[in-house]
Design brief:
- This protein is α+β, with helices and mostly antiparallel strands.
- The protein is about 25% helix and about 20% strand.
- The chain has 8 helices and 10 strands.
- Strands 1-2-10-9-8-3 form a 6-stranded antiparallel β-sheet, covered by helices on one side. Strands 4-5 form a two-stranded antiparallel sheet.
- Helix 7 crosses helix 8.
- It is globular and about 55 Å long.
- The two termini are about 25 Å apart.
């Protein structure tokens, strides 16, 4: 969502065994599913109802939010290791067993070439969205301002928020700077606004903001730095492809998304995935 360029990680995976292990690499990453992990906001009836209304499937069944544990230390993992980490994650047995029901297929591990972008987690406060009113996308009472509907790659631009998010020719596009568009907080909000094929979208922004806040807290870890500032300790990776010999999404669509969130201190790995399913 935006014109950010893909960051190609330098370490491509050429020869891996069935578990994503390569004898030429250092110790491979090992992952275990955490079936008892809870996502307080995501699992709440209010959020499940909202996600269903916004087209993510009945009880958000088209959306995946799962947590795993990585056995190896990942603190201060260098950027050049992120592609290997993602590849070994998606072809690990525990991960494949859980994610195959969502249409993710990555059995040929030796040919995985993930496309990965590391996003920013600097925006931690909902004041980030004050510009929605400042730029005239919503009114003072939270009403989302409409516009004449226009199609953008399968997304109906029915309101000013969507116009600002996608229409580069609009004067509203500059509401969000390029750095804003790389913020994970922004991505959550826009994904919810766009929704799925059967999206019954909101006329007011408050519900989008509430669910954005809840999911953000579900997926990210924060701490208070010595300066007293609250900072994120999580790393968020956007994964747009696993390569030609794997399937990340059943159907190509601009609404698709997949994020891998790493909590180094807990050695937790959260995956948040949605694959667009046509209504017809």
């Amino acid at each position: 969502f935006g014109s950010s360029k893909l960051v190609k990680m330098p370490s491509m995976l050429d020869t891996m065994d069935g578990d994503g292990c390569d004898d030429d690499f250092q110790e491979p990453f090992t992952f275990h599913f955490l079936p008892d992990a809870r996502f307080r906001a995501f699992e709440s009836p209010a959020v499940q109802s909202a996600l269903t209304q916004w087209g993510f499937g009945d009880q958000a069944q088209q959306m995946a939010l799962y947590k795993f544990r990585v056995e190896q230390p990942v603190q201060d993992m260098p950027a050049q290791e992120l592609q290997r980490f993602v590849a070994e994650f998606f072809c690990a047995r525990d991960v494949r067993g859980v994610l195959q029901s969502k249409g993710i297929y990555a059995s040929k591990a030796e040919k995985l070439k993930p496309e990965v972008v590391e996003l920013s987690t600097s925006a931690l406060n909902m004041q980030f969205f004050d510009k929605l009113e400042q730029a005239g996308l919503v009114s003072h009472n939270g009403h989302i301002k409409g516009r004449i509907e226009e199609d953008f790659e399968g997304i109906p631009l029915v309101n000013k928020i969507r116009e600002a998010a996608f229409d580069e020719g609009s004067e509203l596009y500059d509401t969000f700077w390029e750095s804003d568009r790389l913020e994970f907080l922004y991505r959550i909000f826009i994904h919810l606004n766009v929704g799925g094929a059967s999206n019954q979208y909101e006329d007011h922004v408050e519900r989008y903001l509430e669910v954005t806040k809840g999911l953000f807290r579900d997926m990210l870890s924060v701490r208070t730095a010595d300066s007293g500032e609250v900072v994120s300790t999580s790393r968020v990776l956007e994964v747009t492809s696993l390569g030609e010999d794997a399937v990340l999404f059943r159907k190509e669509h601009i609404s698709n998304f997949c994020y891998v969130i790493i909590d180094p201190s807990m050695r937790h790995v959260t995956v948040w995935h949605f694959g667009y399913v046509p209504f017809w």
